[in-house]
Amino acid sequence: MSLANIFEISDQYISKFLLKLNLQTEQADLISNYILLFFSFLISIALFYLTRWILRTYIARFIRTSKTKWDDYLLEHRIFHKAAYLIPGIFIGWTVTPIFHGYDEIIASLSVILTVYKYIIVAYVFNAILDTIVQAYNDQSESKKLPVKGFAQIIKLFVWLIIFILIISTFLHKNPTSILAGLGAVSAILLLVFKDTILGFVGGIQLAAFDMVKEGDWISLPKYDADGTVIDISITTVKVKNWDNTISTIPTYSLISDSVKNWRGMEESDGRRIKRSILLDMHSVKFCTPEMLERFSKFEFLGDYIKETEENIQKQNKLRNADTSLLVNGLRQTNIGVFRAYLTRYLENHPYVNHEMTTMVRQLSPTEKGIPMEIYVFSRIKSWVEYEGIQSDIFDHILAVIPQFELSVFQEPSGADFRKILV
User: Can you tell me whether residue 376 is helix, strand or coil?
Assistant: First the structure.
């Protein structure tokens, strides 16, 4: 027996009952149809709960016991649960025509409502599938190169736009293409309303295409006072967790239009740069005496250097017939030169310095505050806390060893210095 026959027989019994209540034939038929529609609604609800029970009892149990991970995301985003909402719409849609046979206007109206309902449920299911894909990518991809969340949000926006057009075309009984043609007239308004979304969309594409920023990157944006790790990239905003545990929310397109420092290159390289200088007092710079050179030659890393340099200097002075009785004549070693050589060898033998990368000690242009002696090396350890510890240890040693070369560090006079003068 077909569904139409079941409802036809049921309609006859209900109509006969209503006629016994002294109702007119037309009224009895219409009321009978609505009663059958109500029963159809109740049956659809029962089918919904039955479907959900089957999904929870068998499908969900199978997924939880499976070894694969991706199917767990289907449960987490309740895709089956949302898809089950299609059952009432589909069942009632089957029953509308048999119940209201001969009432074309009512059938058309109910068909429109059911179609809109199914469009909305399909959109929710599709968006849940997108969320599942995004989570699966973020959890299982090591690189997280693509900002898939932003792309997913853009797709969701287009999905809802398509659903909106389909709903309007369903209510107006027009072709969706004609609705799209009409949207051209309000495109300027749409561009204004969705300006940030459009800019974020373009920015997201550029970020992905050129691999500029991705989740997990350490970035610095002075304009927005942001310095920390990227924790989320969406269509319109990027969230940065700063090192003080505050959260900065930045427009996505700002990562394209403004100056951004991305520390990923450092993290992926073989070392993290140490670049810092110490100011030496120019008044402490002088030529080395034989006594100073003899003492310096006992320092670690300097014995061979002092010996080789002195032999080379004596050869050069002999070739030039230099009168070495005067300090200004010929070649001589200086305490700052020996100090620079010591620092170079000290860093070349440091266990936490990457010797395959640039290792350099250089003098910068003198200033009114002294001679800057700059250290330019790369630490093997890149994690922030350990890196700062290594950098501090290096400069602790440098500051402590400077007086051994009869050099002094420049420092602005303090109140205590002026009080000593007055006393």
Answer: strand
Three-state secondary-structure class, residue 184: helix
Structure tokens at 47: 């089918």
pTM (two decimals): 0.55
Helix, strand and coil in the chain, % to nearest 5: 65, 15, 25
**CATH entry, 145-154+172-268, from 3.40.190.10, 2.40.50.100, 2.30.30.60, 3.40.50.150:** 2.30.30.60
Q: Mind listing the pLDDT tens digit for each residue in 237-287? A: 788 999 888 998 888 778 877 888 888 877 778 889 999 999 999 999 999
Positive or negative, the CA dihedral 70, 72, 74, 77 is negative
What are the residue boundaries of the structural domains of the chain, listed by start?
3-140, 145-154+172-268, 272-419
- 390 pLDDT band, cuts 50/70/90, is very high
* CB proximity list for 299: less than 8 A, separation 6 or greater: 342, 404
Bridge partners, residue 272, by sequence: 379
Q: How many CB atoms lie within 10 A of CB 222?
A: 11
- 147-175 pLDDT, tens digit each: 666 677 778 878 888 888 888 888 877 77
Structure tokens at 308: 């080789």
